[in-house]
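Example 3.2
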Amino acid sequence: MLRIFLIIGFVLGSVPALAQDDLSVGYYYPEITSQETFTRVLGLDFKASAKLRSTFVTAITKSRFESPANPNYVIFAKGTQPQKLVIVALDDDVFKTLYRARAVLAQLSSNLRAGLFKDDENLRVAGTFYDLMQIMEFKTLVITDGENWSHKVLFSQ
């Protein structure tokens, strides 16, 4: 009888660890099909906060919905300290492949160079969307077509 309780305890104790790995899988996006780690750290003296990350995501979302074109993807943050950024396609074409998704990230990088990064020569020339995620202390980015694939980027701190 004790052995049964130990086995049940072990199994139940293991489930939350697995489930906490990514509770958004199956709800916001399909299983992660590819993953990478972004390790470049620019060494800027900047302290991000949950409020700043939320404000950043809200500003991007607001600008996307104010655009005359229908938004073809959404951006939102998850977590109690919103440190996971999720980008989900809203149509079947924009993120049809990971390559198209990377092109959207490149466009976001270009917009950042002209905006947020404009005052720093190094960032204006080479800063990327991943750099901004790193600076703002996001831990992960998940980009997905919302149907078949999800790509996770881990940011080392």
